[in-house]
Give the backbone structure.
Amino acid sequence: MTFTRRNFLKSTAVAGVAGSVGFPHIWIKDSGAAWAANGEIKVGVLFSLTGTTAVVEKSMHNATMMAIDEINAAGGINGMKLTAIVEDPASDPATFADKANKLVLNDKCVSVFGSYTSASRKAVLPVFEKRKNLYWYPTLYEGRECSKNVMYTGAVPNQQQKEFIPWLVKNFGKKFYLIGSNYIYPKEENNVCKILLKELGGEVVGEEYVPLGHSEFGSVLNKFRETKPDVIFSTVVGDSVIALHKQYKAAGFSPDRMPMASLTTSEVEIAAMGGEYAAGHFTSAPYFMGHQSKENEVFVENYRKRFGKDSVTHFVSEAAYFQMHLFRKAVETIGKGDITPIAVRDATAGLEIMAPQGKVKVDGDNLHCYLWPKIGQAQTDGQFKVIQQSSDWVKPEPYWAYPGQSCTKDGLKGA
Amino acid sequence: MDIFFGQLFTGLSIASILLLVALGLAIIYGAMGVINLAHGEFVMLGAYGTWFLQSQFGLPLIPCLLLVFLMVAAAGWVVESTVVRFLYHRPLDTILATWGIGIMLQQAVRLSAGAELRYVQTPEFLSGSIDIAGVGIPSYRLFILALSAALLALTWFVIQRTEFGMKLRAVTQNREMASCYGIDSARIYSLTFAFGSGLAGLAGALVAPIKSVAPDMGTNFVVDAFMVVVVGGVGSLIGTVVSSGLLGSGTAGIAFLLNDTLAKALVFLAVVVLVRFRPQGLFVDQRRR
């Protein structure tokens, strides 16, 4: 084909059209358009309603919707109603990223509330950082993250273990067996546990990771018999929790002498395994359904009234609930100003609110929350008895196990 | 020493569970040459059936077993007569079709019974442990061991000593010739598929009290079951028994000395090596084809 002016103009036109059709984000502006208009504030709700993690995420979705309805029933925020745009990412991290894109770009949500697994959070992170939007993550996780576009309302390892490990050593002994599922969360938690144990003169008699979903614990139980730990520090998740508890009891072990201490076994897992298998074991979490406080009574009563008298609340659904109210309070303080995700983030930094677990505060530097870790012992009726409550809220330190690194207002320092 | 006995028993226990799950598959694959990837979901259906009977009607575990066997066998019959029947000459399509059925069953259970983990109760008299040689052996695992031996005996009896079994062996050897002799091979195949699925459901019912009941529990089982059948040799009951014993004890032993993740990986590796050098499995069913 000869290089004529006609051919040149034709191919340029075709390339231009193809390019803009193939890369539509050229047309979409990054900022400028208002997120709150026509008397409504759009928020995205991104919890899996189908798929493997739907069990837990549905309860978080429920708690979020309940909070949104409470806010709207009280007149909204400064007269503007919250409009929830619900998406179901079906427990698949790639779909999480897809739906997050849609909520941020197409629906223009001023914030998105979602995620249970770290995999899904990591998948959506690039979307929120690139588009300068705000993601509210209510789940306990392994720390080591310092994004300026995520509000972390779940516990990090230093909050969950700082009082738990010393209490266990004092009450049961110094020999720990660490058993977890084979991925990053248990490994980071065990990291923190080992550091704490070393300070206390404790000993790790075994450390083991089983595949996700593993349900055959015969060999592991035999190793308990052989190494005789005082405490079994368990970070297995999902189906493995139920299988481990059931087989532990059937093998004749007793939580009076060799209890299982975990960070993830909640009221939901106890309901799935039956109270008699869970009874006597310990969990550390900022919230238990049986926590005695006026705010919690109201929260549980409303939750049960709406979702069934047999439904249970647990630490992740409580965080999903209070984070929505944190959002409300932040937007209220913005008042007549521009409601943008960054403005919401800056308004939330340092904010305090009365949550069902107690008063929580958002740390202005790392965007995590000051929480009240509690030690609960599972009872046969499926509830936890709170054995010990921390005397003061605990500051979140997502890089506690990595001295020299810290998450500051300007990002990660010392990495 | 008692740790050794404890680990030995754990190996036996794992082997017995493997045998339970693989028995149905061995029959279906051995007799019919059908690769049923929905086998794990039949196990799952058995577990859910038990949960359903327990929570709705309050039936204890033992009566549930027979009912669950019949229920899942009926489900297997339906699957065979609607889908598998038309794909006997097309093994690759059977794989695809049964995989699809497996996914549909999983999602159907998830949509109807919910995705929460469910709870099946161990019978009271079986929930303790018995002291043997100084080791506390869980009574329920002994029960599973006993029952898997009983089911193995029952299956052997059905195949070797009943008329149905004889017809099945005839159809397996040569379907066309057996039909010429007046055997209704289509009916035999349906009954066999139903029997194999019923065994899978029974396995699910027995395993449910010590593990957890979730919609996706079947996937792990079907992989293990296929490994057992392939290593043991297609069409050989003894092969299934020996290979589940080997794989079970092997997994338990390596898991004790190292850990469970490595155990799974090493066992898989061993199976791959074995199949490379002896693709027909350990015990070959001598047959003139």
